[in-house]
UniProtKB/TrEMBL annotation, chain A:
A Gene Ontology cellular-component term: plasma membrane
GO biological process annotation, one example: transmembrane transport
Organism (species): Micromonospora endophytica
Membrane topology summary: Multi-pass membrane protein
Gene3D superfamilies: MetI-like (1.10.3720.10)
Alphabetized UniProt keyword annotations: Cell membrane, Membrane, Transmembrane, Transmembrane helix, Transport
Family per similarity comment: Belongs to the binding-protein-dependent transport system permease family.
Protein name stated in the entry: Sugar ABC transporter permease
Automatic annotation (TrEMBL), chain B:
Source domain of life: Bacteria
Keywords associated with the record: Cell membrane, Membrane, Transmembrane, Transmembrane helix, Transport
UniProt name for this protein: Sugar ABC transporter permease
Segments crossing the lipid bilayer: 34-55, 88-114, 126-148, 168-194, 278-300
InterPro entries (UniProt xref): MetI-like, MetI-like_sf
GO BP annotation list: transmembrane transport
Keyword Lipid metabolism listed: no
Length: 280, 310
């Protein structure tokens, strides 16, 4: 690095051009595997497995057709159900909790906050066996609701931390004014808090959705054919022999698409969410 | 549920200063919104660990029905004297440390590249964050088959040769795929830090005669430190639990070269069905995590604004 950051100044001349080219090259390099995945999904299997790799080919939809012929749809629906319902549950649980840790804090709010984050640090793998046995005893193996409950617990700490950081930004004066006007809590929440924290709720929902949609470890151990989510559909490709690369890339593209699109659209919220509210 | 409380926020006692002790009813009214989430978290995340503790004292192989009995700490003796767990621990440390370190460094470089105006900056940023958004399972398959494959993979396709990347460099293969996914994460956090840096400080450094490199190492880097730490910490929390990439790209192999703790415990549970041993290994991992997490939590409290709320 021979120059420091300076967002306000457009670096002039040759050096500026060099850095611009470098940035573009880095962006393209990182995107290359994704581009390759998208392209390969539209190839015929012979083209997909060609060496050297073929960049120019007649696009076909065979890969996509085969993926849907193999019943990808139920897996996508399971993913959608598990992600949406767990995200909703997380918001319902985390928002009041964050309120009780920020605006009207309980006595030991700091300890509670740390308790939540510590549950995120404990390795899931250590809880896998008891969860598996319990779920088995309850007859809940291969059931989407099992995933919903676990995903809710998985995302709850992140959501509590995020929502707290958003609630802390609500100006105190506003809440005081509402109280002085005699507004009760529900009115205060609906009229004052909700409009201010709506973007925060959206950002939190996005992060929870991304993590549940992409979750694999719990899904692969607790579900099979009925409740399998989209990453489970991909398991079949791990050891596949023969010509399957186009099909694999088509499937990988489809299952990644919802999160990629959501992340592209909500780039601004992504940073804040990923840092649990610490970075704006 | 707390509609009876309509006093202003200014009546809120601070954590340290308590002018008037709120009465019982009020304290419970304060706690009420917190309880559902707290109870849910305790039941779903803490109770299983108690059950793990109990299971770890049992000799129980699910393939031998009726073989279950109390054996005290024997499972711990097995697990701790077992080379496999030690190897898995080493692999976990190597895998986590190298992926976090490399992705933080790359993320820093990319953030510096993006922290200036240039044509198409938004597009480059969008391209760069995409790897993080791709489903990890899909990304792992993509790297295994479309990139590393010796006969039709992208690397050998572009550079020639017929290196079997996954079997010759298993750990590097896994780490490279993880770095590709996590660099954007680091970049986003560091970039947010860079953009909050005041221009006056930089200007002051320039006026004082500091060159670009000096400004970077003496001013920017110390300023970025909390962001680098935050990225590394959050990255470690996720990467230490890496499962998808190992499960998909190498299946822990060749031999045990890439078997990390999550994958090792997974194998003990669902391949060997040694439930007692798996539980004991789980407890050992939890204790290790608590030791590391104690430091991590201290770091977190300094990184996040932990001042008293109103």
């Amino acid at each position: 690095m021979t120059r420091t950051s300076n967002p306000a100044r457009r670096s002039a001349g040759l050096t500026g051009a060099v850095w611009t080219v470098l940035a573009w090259l880095a962006g393209l390099l990182f995107f290359l595997p994704v581009l390759w995945m998208m392209l390969t999904g539209f190839k015929r299997e012979v083209d997909a497995a060609s060496n050297p790799p073929s960049w120019f080919f007649t696009p076909v939809l065979d890969g996509y057709r085969q993926v849907f012929d193999r019943d990808l749809t139920p897996y996508l629906l399971n993913s959608l159900m598990a992600s949406l319902v767990s995200t909703l549950l997380v918001l319902v649980l985390a928002t009041p909790a964050a309120y009780a840790l920020s605006i009207r804090p309980v006595a030991k709010w700091r300890d509670v906050l740390f308790f939540f984050i510590s549950t995120k640090m404990l390795p899931v793998v250590a809880a896998l066996l008891p969860i598996y046995l319990l779920v088995q005893n309850l007859g809940m193996l291969d059931n989407v609701w099992t995933l919903i409950v676990l995903y809710t617990a998985m995302n709850l700490p992140i959501a509590v931390w995020m929502m707290r950081s958003f609630l802390l930004e609500v100006p105190t004066a506003l809440i005081e004014a509402a109280a002085m006007d005699g507004a009760n809590l529900l009115v205060t929440i609906r009229r004052i808090l909700l409009p201010i924290i709506a973007p925060g709720l959206a950002a939190t929902a996005l992060i929870c959705f991304i993590f549940s949609w992409n979750e694999f470890f719990l899904a692969v151990n607790l579900t099979a054919t009925r409740a399998g989510t989209s990453p489970i559909f991909l398991v079949g490709f791990i050891t596949s022999e023969g010509l399957f690369l186009a099909r694999l890339c088509a499937a990988a593209t489809i299952v990644s698409l919802p999160v990629v699109l959501a992340g592209w659209i909500a780039q601004k919220q992504l940073v804040r969410g990923l840092s649990m509210g610490a970075v704006k | 549920m707390t509609t009876t409380i309509t006093t202003g926020a200014d009546a809120t006692p601070r954590r340290t200063v308590r002018p008037t002790r709120p009465d019982r009813k009020q304290r419970w009214a304060r706690r009420a919104p917190l309880l559902p989430a707290l109870l849910f978290a305790i039941v779903v995340t803490q109770l299983p660990f108690l059950f793990t503790l109990y299971l770890s004292t049992q000799s129980w192989n699910a393939l031998r029905p009726g073989s279950r009995e109390f054996i005290g700490l024997a499972n711990y003796a097995t697990v701790l004297s077992d080379d496999r767990l030690r190897a898995a621990l080493v692999n976990t440390v190597v895998l986590t440390a190298s992926s976090v370190l490399v992705s933080v460094l790359l993320g820093l470089g990319l953030a510096l590249l993006l922290d200036r105006r240039f044509p198409g900056r938004g597009i480059v940023r969008t391209l760069l964050i995409t790897p993080f958004l791709v489903m990890p399972m899909a990304a792992a398959l993509l790297w295994k088959h479309a990139i590393y494959n010796p006969s039709y993979g992208l690397i050998n396709g572009i550079f020639g040769g017929n290196t079997d990347w996954v079997s010759q460099y298993p750990m590097v293969s896994v780490v490279a795929a993880l770095v590709w996914q996590w660099t954007p994460f680091m970049m986003l956090i560091i970039l947010a830090g860079l953009q909050g840096q005041s221009l006056e400080t930089l200007e002051a450094a320039r006026v004082d005669g500091a060159g670009p490199w000096q400004t970077f190492t003496r001013v920017t880097l110390p300023y970025l430190r909390p962001y680098l730490e935050l990225g590394a910490l959050l990255g470690s929390i996720y990467l230490v639990q890496t499962f998808d990439a190992v499960f998909t790209i190498t299946q822990g192999g060749p031999g045990r070269a890439t078997t990390n703790l999550p994958y090792e415990i997974y194998l003990t549970t669902f391949r060997k069905f040694e439930y007692g041993e798996a539980a004991a290994a789980g407890v050992v991992v939890v204790i290790g995590t608590i030791l590391v997490a104690t430091f991590a939590l201290r770091l977190i409290s300094s990184l996040f604004r932990m001042e008293d709320p109103r």
